[in-house]
Structure formats: structure tokens, C-alpha cells
Specification:
2 copies of one chain form a homodimer.
Chain A: H1 12-25, H2 38-45, H3 49-61, E1 65-68, E2 72-75, H4 90-95, H5 104-115, E3 120-121, H6 134-142, H7 159-173, E4 182-185, H8 187-198, E5 205-210, H9 219-222, E6 226-231, H10 239-249, E7 253-256, H11 270-283, E8 287-290, E9 315-320, E10 332-335, H12 338-352, H13 357-368, H14 372-397, E11 402-404, E12 412-417, H15 423-432, E13 435-436, E14 438-439, E15 449-453, H16 462-478
Parallel strand pairs in A: 3-13, 5-6, 5-7, 7-8, 8-9
Antiparallel strand pairs in A: 1-2, 4-10, 9-10, 11-12, 12-15, 14-15
Helix pairs in contact in A: 1-3, 2-3, 6-13, 7-13, 10-11, 14-16, 15-16
The structure holds pyridoxal-5'-phosphate (PLP) (2 copies).
Chain lengths: ~475, ~475
């Protein structure tokens, strides 16, 4: 992001007007388009609003922009030649298309983090830099040679990675499969996208957990699906609810995150798993199992995936490196019947022509390497340590104002607020104080919840972050 | 792909029945699903059909599979417990969804190449291994350190790569832009996908060149677009045709590949470019410029992109590394007004959460490195050499049967067949003789054309490949 140079002899406002003129002439802001407001631009560039007002005045005097009260500042049309020319109405195109934008809260959080990289981040559902195996990846890359063809890869994924995952799934997840049933994706996100786009049709009914990560994804609505809720309690969903949803709405698929569920941290109980398999096989209903967190289990063995007990073939299994290695790798996988893998691989070829071979080969080497197991053990200990820090801070700062169940794995803590506050206001108050979290309503549940990702902030930020959050919360409760 | 072990003491048919039993029990072929035919399996495993027949008999005797005449061999339902259980009807799911599968010819070619990796490949639109900068990429990766956070990246793309592309676009393509107008994608393929999904709505009319790469992409139909044709002659499309399509159908966007067009190799003439800008600005119509080939220009300067002359802001510009470096990198880019970039980045976050940071950072280093320019020069010379080999072979083998215009850049030669032959039959005859190409009808044009990609086969394969193709063609003309 460009910023004006405070050492330069050229006045700030002139640097800004030159910069804007350049961006306008490059077509970034076409004739007729709206510029950011003075307030917003001032914030982005880290200058006083009066400086931006002067820069705008400069551009206005050159006939490059026009302001009308109430409708903001726009790039002039007249400047661009005498002929009656028309730039495409780009903003109409940007609003067109049937694919829905992200939720406003999610966009607000991303915007805040972009603008203020120093915010303490309890919002991004990922590991902090020190938890990722960056050194191991660097070492593996340094040893690497590209002797083979760097051409279009098989859209189902790089074969050596599929082979490595077959052993990994057997060893770590108790899943027996073969490389032809494994498909590599750009993370669980793309697995979910492919399933909703290619296996379901607009109007189809599906069931998702409540609360659930899936609610935060407008892609379900973009695909025209009708969503029905399966309330999650301490032991996960109630399989009987699936049966009644099926009777009423003929649901076509169930989406679940059985182990250390996002956002609640719940593990689906053994008892209910049996009921689930029963219901699924009676109804011939496919279950999508999203399983990114199990290997983070803090103590004892990782909970098993449903897929490892799937004697009837009801489960589409989704895994990912994002939560156990690094989200920036963008490597996930699916285990599915052959006909499904073929269909999804064919479709994805048209969407992005498959993944880059480079991260796929790095990932294959990493899980086969002697680094992998020690990395997992270290990760579990460090995550547990961060969880404990978060809990200590919450107990110290907000003993009377929050309630939660201690998660035994995963990256998140799901926290009930004991006083009613407005989600959006709480977020803004928190951002003002230098901390972000995700409001619970994003996950489809009632307001009054907050998701804290303890994995993401640095260790030393956790206590400070919660103390800032506590200030924000108290400010709203008092007022 | 698993193959039986011919050294083993265990008979082949037993190895095969064990292997199939394993795949069935892992859920790859769920109860009730269809197995590949005996003929197909025999071909895949490289054994006699009789061996597969024996393996099937073995599985049948164990009650694992059932065959019924005329309806193939299926996995038994009964084997899987006495209870009335239902596996999801996976094949119905695989056929569901509104996203269309690839064209049959394209799937046939992919299948043939998977089954017989030794086929001489004039079909895949990419560089051969020796033309890609694999050594350079290996060196850059070996020097690399991941000190920064390997977390979820900005969905608009890795900032250092966007910065590197701003200089690249200025230096090599005469395009002035800023990093906030550049978006990184998984190749031109994903750029086209995002545009069709997010900026257009079902029912919208768009214009594409005829013939065109776009016809080979069912994604245009999957997005519900109505396609209208702009015939391409020696100088490209006629801009007046756009005006009349607009009048009749209110087309909302035009897709073009002005430089060394795929498949024809045509360069859009200067004369007509002026007319195009005139029409586009009069109508306020956006033009998508797909520009993957220009830097391959064999002699003289690379033709300029439309975007470099786009004073009115009508062009959405798409670039890619696939045709000038390596398609397996999966790195492409778009230059677009800010509102469009923001919209597409937001949508793509839901689709795949952005690209892996690793190939993005390798790509950034590569274009900034001193390797880049020499690589381009070497590539141009080698491509021209391969083109000349192809032309020589065609003139030697089929002087009386084909006609073509010599392309001055790009990876392809578009070849008219002077006798009428059936597209599908010609392809099968060619595959039988060990060579593949893409039938012209895939690009939406009349049959009677063939696209040969001279970049893809090894140098020493070109003459052999064309001699096999000539045999295939003559076999059909004689009979
Ligand atoms: C339950 C769940 N599924 C899927 C994802 C997407 O992760 P990725 O695409 O990085 O694998 C997330 C990330 O937050 C998640 O929490
Ligand atoms: C004209 C054109 N556009 C787009 C593509 C897609 O290329 P990529 O996604 O690898 O950049 C191709 C590849 O064949 C092409 O020829």
C-alpha cells in the first residue's frame, strides 16, 4: 500500500494528488467512478483529513474529479476527450453476478486487519507464524529439484501427494483408501465449494450444524441451497433431528465438523455417532465430514473421524493442512467414491486447472519426512499453552461476564457473554482498542457469543488482547 | 496407478481380485456401484482380458460383485450386512449440480494421455519440459527462506508478486498500473471463471471469437450465458460485428485473445483495434483481453496488448505464466478497475481462499531475476524451431491434404484439412497410432480443422507424430 513520504520536500497533499492522478489515469478509477471518502482515504494514508481535502481540491481544479454534496467525489467524465465516450459501468458489473459477497462482519474484520496490521487478532482461524513449520518447509524446499515436467497437472492432484496422503490417512486417521479415491484441493474451502457447486442443485435442501462455520460462507446461498439447522449441544448434533428434517424437507446432504467443531469446540459423542450411521444408512443420505482439527487434540489420542467407521460408504471426507501446518500452503484433500472424485476433478479443471505442483510436492515431502510427527507434538503442546493463557486472561478480566466450556483441541474458544450487547457495536469498540474477534452471529447462532481464536495471536499478545476486549465489553455494558 | 507385479509368485488374476476387493472395501466403489468393464480394466492394468475375467469370477464367488448381462458388473449390496442399509446413490449426486462437465473430446484426450503416457502429444496447450525454466525455478527455491507468516494470504494475491507484476507489465507490455489494480489468479482459466461467475448473470449475452478457446470451456454455459460469435479472419474479428450483436442481443461483454489467437494464431490488426476502441467506448462495453501468448513472438517486437492503448478504460486484462514459463505454476493475473478487483477477490476467498504463497513468491522472484529475459529469448527461438519442424513435416507428409497460415507466435498451428473426415474417427485413428491433437470443432468452428500444439511434443517427436497423423488421415480418406 502506497503511503506519502514524510521526508520528502514535496508537500503531503501534492504527493497525494499526484498519486491519485496516476491511479486515475491508469484506469483503476475509471471516469464516473466513486473515489474513497476523505475520511477513509485519510485513515488509509495515515494523514489528517485536511490534507486529503487539499489534495482533492487540487484534482478538482484540474478538472480530474467532481464532488457533489451527498453523493461523494467522482472521477470526471468530461476530462477524457470531447467525443461522447462511455466507460463501462464497472460498478454495475461488480454488483452483478449471482455469487454472493462475504458477510459484512467478515469484510469489516478483513478491512480492519488490512488497515491496522498491529491489531491483536483473535479472529483469523489459523496458526500464528511461530506454530507453522516454516523452517521445515524452507529446508525441504532448499533440497528440492524440479527434474520432472512443470506442466498442467492431473486436476485430481499430484500423484506423489495422493500416495503420501494414503499412508497418512491410514496411520493418523484410521482411514483406508487408495490414491484414486483421493483428490487434492485448495483447502477445505475448495472442497466445500466443489461439493456445493457440482453435487447439489439450486433448490436442494441440506442440513448444517448450528452454530457452524458453514453459516459464515455465503457460498451455500450462492449455490441456491436451502439450509436447515441441526442444533449442537455438548455432545454434538442429535441424529434424530436429521431424520425429521429428512421427512419434512427431503434434505440431500448433511455437513458436519465432528471433531473440535468450529466454533464450539465440541466432539461428537460415540453414542451419537452410532445413531448417525444408522440414520444415514436408513435414508441413504451422504454426510460430508469436515475434519481439519482432530490432530490438534491437546491430551490423549486424537478423536477418530467418522470416515474410519464408515462401513456403509456414507461419508465424504474432507481434510486440510491449514490448521495443523500452514493455511498459506492451501492444501486440502477429499476422500470420496471414484465417481464423485472424477466428477469434481473434471469440474475443477475448468475453474482453475488444478493446483500448483510446487506446494503439492512440498506438502508430500513434509508428511513423509521425519519432521512431521515432532511438529504435531510440538503444535499440540503450544496450542494447549495458548488456550490456557486465554482462559486465565478471561477468568482474570471477565470472571462475571463470560461463560465457556474448555476446548480439548482445535484453535478456538466459544464464549457466551452473560450480558446482552450489540454484536456490531462490540466489534467496533474492540477494533478501536486494538483487538478483533468474530461475533458469534456469523456462525448462525443467536447473538451473545464470541469466537476467540487462541492459535492466532502471539503468546505475549493474549493477555493484552483480552484486557482490551474486556474494556470494550465493559464500555458497552455500562453505557 | 497400481499395476500387478509380474515378478510375484501370486497369479496375476489373484493380485487383481485382491486389489479390487481392497478398493471396494475402502469405499471407492460403494455397494451397488458399477465397476469398469473387463476390457477397460484389462487395458488399464496392462493384462489380458481373460485375466480380468478370472479376477471377476473370484470376486463373484465371494459374493462381492454381481454381473448381469447387458448392465455390467456391480458391487453387491447384500454382502454389506443383513440390515436394509442404503449407500447414498453417489452416481446420482455425480450427475447432479448445474456445473457442466468438460466436452467429450477433451475428456477423451485426457483419458488417452493418462492411459498411454507415451502418446505423442500435439493436444495439450503448453510447453514441453525442456522449454520451461525448471532449473531457474529450482535455483530460486533453493535460495528461499520462509521467514514471513505462511498464513491465509490476501485473496487479491501476494503483494510482492503484485509489485513485481506492476514493473513487468510496464516494461514488457506497456501497461501502466498499480498493485491495487492487479489481482493474482490460478492462471487465465480462473480469471475467466471469476469473470463469468461474478460479473455476469444467467441469461446475459456475451460475444466470443469464432473459433475460440472459450468454446472449449463449458463454464460459459454453466454460468448460463448466451454466446454469440464474432468470426475471426486473417486480421482478427470485425468490430462492426460487435455493434450489430449489441443491437440485436444487448451483449454485455466481449471476450478476445487478440495476439496469436488460440487456435488460429491470428494477430488482431492495428486498423481494427482502432475500430474496436471506437465501438467499445460508444457502447460502454467491456472487453476482456486474454493475452497469454504475445511474449512468444518469434521475430520482431511482441504485439502490444489492447490494454496499453486503453485510454477509455474499456479493457479487463488477463495474463498468465502458463505459456511463457510453466503451466504447472498456476499463476495468472488480471488488471481491472478497483471495484472489480475487490469484488472478485472477495468471491474467490470463498471459493479457494486464495493461492498458495509458495508459487507466488517463486514467480515474483523469477520475473525480477536476471533469468527472466534470457529465458524469454531462448523460448522464442526454440518455439520457432519447433514450429518450423512441424511445418516441414506437414509439407513432407501431407502436401496435398492440408492448408495453414504460418503462425508468427504462440504455441499452436491451425490446420485446415482439404478432405472431409469425421472428427471423432480421425481422433480415434490417431490415438490408435500413438498421436493426439485437438479436433477443430472443440473451438466452435466447423469441422475440417485440427489444432496442432508444436510447443508440447519433444523436438524429436514432431516428425514421427505427423507421420502417424498422416497415416490416420489417409486411412480415413481411402476408406
Ligand atoms: C470447519 C472448517 N472448515 C473449513 C475451513 C477452511 O479451511 P481451509 O480451506 O484453509 O482448509 C475452516 C477454516 O476456518 C474451518 O474452520
Ligand atoms: C487463450 C487461452 N486462455 C486461457 C488459457 C488458460 O491458461 P492458464 O489458466 O494456464 O493460464 C489458455 C490455455 O490453453 C488459452 O489458450
Amino acid at each position: 500500500m502506497w503511503k506519502p513520504d514524510r521526508q520528502s520536500k514535496k508537500p503531503l497533499y501534492e504527493q497525494i494528488s499526484d498519486h491519485l492522478e496516476r491511479r486515475i489515469s491508469y484506469g483503476e478509477f475509471p471516469p464516473g467512478s466513486l473515489l474513497p471518502s476523505e475520511r477513509k482515504l485519510a485513515e488509509q494514508l495515515g494523514v489528517n483529513r485536511s490534507t486529503v481535502i487539499m489534495a482533492f481540491a487540487e484534482l478538482r481544479s484540474m478538472g480530474i474529479i467532481e464532488s457533489r454534496t451527498g453523493s461523494g467525489t467522482r472521477v470526471s467524465r468530461t476530462k477524457w476527450g470531447a467525443m461522447p465516450k462511455h466507460t463501462p459501468n464497472w460498478s454495475r458489473y461488480a454488483e452483478g453476478g449471482s455469487f454472493l459477497p462475504n458477510l459484512p462482519f467478515m469484510r469489516r474484520i478483513r478491512e480492519a486487519l488490512n488497515q491496522h496490521p498491529s491489531l491483536i487478532d483473535f479472529a483469523s482461524g489459523e496458526l500464528s507464524a511461530d506454530l507453522a513449520p516454516s523452517d521445515e518447509i524452507t529446508t525441504l524446499m532448499n533440497e528440492h529439484r524440479y527434474t520432472s515436467h512443470l506442466g498442467y497437472d492431473n486436476p485430481q492432484g499430484y500423484i506423489p501427494l495422493r500416495q503420501a496422503l494414503v499412508s497418512y490417512l491410514d496411520k493418523y486417521r484410521g482411514i483406508q483408501t487408495t490414491e484414486s479415491s483421493v483428490m487434492i484441493t485448495s483447502g477445505s474451502q475448495q472442497s466445500l465449494y466443489l461439493i456445493t457447486q457440482c453435487l447439489l442443485s439450486p433448490g436442494d435442501a441440506v442440513a448444517i450444524e448450528d452454530p457452524s462455520y458453514c453459516y459464515s460462507l455465503p457460498m451455500f446461498q450462492s449455490a441456491g441451497l436451502r439450509l436447515f439447522r441441526l442444533p449442537v449441544d455438548q455432545h454434538g448434533i442429535c441424529p434424530e433431528d436429521i431424520r425429521s428434517l429428512y421427512k419434512k424437507h427431503r434434505i440431500k446432504m448433511v455437513f458436519m465438523n465432528p471433531n473440535f467443531q468450529n466454533p464450539t469446540g465440541t466432539v461428537f459423542s460415540i453414542e451419537r455417532r452410532k445413531q448417525l450411521f444408522d440414520v444415514a444408512s436408513k435414508l441413504g443420505l451422504p454426510i460430508v465430514e469436515d475434519d481439519p482439527f482432530s490432530l490438534t487434540a491437546f491430551e490423549g489420542a486424537a478423536p477418530k473421524p467418522l470416515k474410519s467407521m464408515d462401513s456403509n460408504g456414507s461419508i465424504l471426507y474432507i481434510g486440510s493442512f491449514s490448521k495443523i501446518a500452514a493455511s498459506g500452503l492451501r492444501i486440502g484433500w477429499m476422500v470420496a467414491p471414484h465417481s464423485i472424485v472424477e466428477r469434481l476433478a473434471d469440474a475443477r479443471q475448468q475453474m482453475d486447472f488444478g493446483l500448483s505442483v510446487i506446494p503439492q510436492s512440498v506438502a508430500a515431502q513434509f508428511i513423509k519426512s521425519s519432521y512431521f510427527h515432532p511438529h504435531l507434538e510440538r503444535l499440540q503442546i503450544q496450542l494447549q499453552f495458548k488456550r490456557d493463557l486465554l482462559i486465565e486472561s478471561l477468568q482474570k478480566e471477565l470472571p462475571d461476564l463470560v461463560k465457556f466450556i474448555t476446548p480439548q483441541g482445535g484453535l478456538h474458544l466459544w464464549c457466551k457473554l452473560l450480558h446482552e450487547v450489540h454484536d456490531g457495536k462490540l466489534l467496533e469498540e474492540a477494533i478501536k482498542r486494538g483487538v478483533v474477534f468474530v461475533p458469534g452471529s456469523v456462525y448462525g447462532s443467536d447473538s451473545g457469543f464470541v469466537r476467540f481464536t487462541f492459535a492466532r495471536p502471539k503468546t505475549e499478545e493474549i493477555a493484552v488482547g483480552i484486557s482490551r476486549f474486556a474494556e470494550a465489553l465493559r464500555a458497552l455494558i455500562v453505557s
